Amino acid sequence: MKKFNKIMSAALVASMVMVSMAGCGSSAETATEAPAAGTTAATEAAAETTAADGATIKIGGIGPITGPAADYGIAVQNGSQLAVDEINANGGINGVQIEYNFQDDVHDATTSVNAYNSLKDWGMQMLMGTVTSGPCQAVVEKTQEDNMFQLTPSGSSVECIKYDNAFRVCFSDPNQGIASADYIADNKLAEKVAIIYNSSDVYSSGITEKFTAEAGVKGLEIVSSEAFTADSATDFSVQLQKAQAAGADLVFLPIYYTEASIILTQANTMGYAPAFFGCDGLDGILGVENFDTALAEGVMLLTPFAADAKDDATVAFVTAYEEAYGKTPSQFAADAYDAIYIIKAAAEKAGVTADMSVSDICEAMKPAMLEVSVDGLTGAGMTWSADGEPSKAPKAVKITDGAYAAME
Amino acid sequence: MSFITYLVQGVSLGSVYAIIALGYTMVYGIAKMLNFAHGDVIMVGGFTCFTLSSSMGLPPIVGVLVSIVFCTILGVVIERVAYRPLREAASPLAVLITAIGVSYLLQNVALLIFGSNPKSFTSVVTIPAIKLFEGQVTISGEAIVTLICCVVIMIGLTLFINKTKGGQAMLAVSEDKGAAQLMGINVNGTIALTFAIGSGLAAIAGVLLCSTYPSLTPYTGSMPGIKAFVAAVFGGIGSIPGAMIGGILLGVIEIFGKAYISSQMADAIVFSVLIIVLLVKPTGIFGKKIQEKV
User: Fold this and answer.
1) Theoretical Cys-Cys bridge with A407: which of A261, A367, A396, B12, CB 3.0 to 4.6 Å?
2) CA pair distance A64, A335, nearest whole angstrom
């Protein structure tokens, strides 16, 4: 019997490992199924617009339209589609229509590379993507190999654009970390700050690192800095408890909205009510199904786009977006909308034509990106440096009455 | 003060593990198989309650009761369809692998129906939090309800097994299936009853888990399920008080590990406990060493 027990325990441990490993596999599997439907729809739609003349510029998009970061991907898909439709209706890029195809990556690096490969098979000439940092770092290795022009609307980690073929619309993680610390210090939002971050996520740890450094410079006191990992992302009671015990009057959340929604709920249960400040990852928190948005009241986040802004471009975009998709666009939608127009501006400057090869387009786009200046929704007069970083001013919004309101 | 708060959180988390572990341990004790789909039955329980109370607006108690009934039926169906035909299979691994298969089936069906976007679960517990020591220690209503449920379930199960005919039949089946059958006990019926109880408990665990940690996805049950399995082994698999003590200890270890060692290492600490227990005392804290009869 003893021997049998030993064999059983060995088998159990083995099967547990299997369960946990297969856990990763299953999300990838489901992902490959989902985009199939989306693709057909997208290609069909694209086919209609291009029927008039054969040559089109093929732009691919990649992002999570299912899974834990789906809110970002859907916003990007919608925002970019809106821009593509507008551009096509107004005569396209240099008179050439855009053919656009968006693929799901479920915020998973392997799935994202697969999506990239299938887009290449489809004939993609430029990539608008990917939406989230982790997958983006994997895909940029491929675009660099293929010398394909890549513009990510929201991939904010440094490594997302480490090659010269890649650019981005949003701020980088370090810049978000620095800007957040500056914003908190300059507006005297808090003196004692606690951080809760995801150590298994490059976006979150990247911001945390720079935030901590900048906070030191600005005289903010960081009283607690606690991590969690993807596997322990449901219980934040300990981290919140530590923040409370340390007397933090502001909790900095450089994380995605799913975890943030749990943190807000648990803080409320504990009766802990500090100020919460986050980066663009918090954008989407109001869209979590069945989440009590009253808990997010007063949460501040750094975002380059506020849907309630009154300038003409924003109003026009918000109206068109609401009409098409029935909800208020987030900054991801705006980033993606801008991304398509940035591609258009640079492609027109570079004289990109439909028959050019992927590599030729990339070589033409690279210098053009450094010359263009785009007035977009996420910033006026955006320009790019050779390292792919945009130059624009950060803004912060505060959640008031269940909607974003500009601060200042 | 924070020590007490951590202890409360640990006991609360541990009680959820304990309820899940009770299901694992009963099924193991009686059917001698590991039901890896148990964690996913928890998730089904959570989704059933979510659909009824949050989406359809029924009172939470209706959601809880329906999810218990639904999971009980689900447990019996799984046992009948997937496990019973394999009970006489040559290798005990066959049923284990099937259990893993069922686990993925449940996850993927949930993924198909509900999608993978996380849902924010509205707590079914309406008891207000208790504040002690001038508000320095807060005990949430969920923690109180979970602990009470856990103790009540454990006592109820122990009484059921020792005092009722059905329970005695379970004991008999767990000791010797063949002899039990010869004595006129309906072995298949008894095992089905075990699954029914285990899955009903899983539904309760699911609702309590989601009330305390309000995020619901098709993968919600897998990590707590594995940890509860660790708890069951820790306490001595097959032993009902063992599952409860193991679960609570594990919850406390996890929270203390997070609070005093490293918040990143919490899971590593939990699984190290499993390895150490298996090395030092393979039968767990309350595990019985069964003498092989000659």
Assistant:
1) A396
2) 15
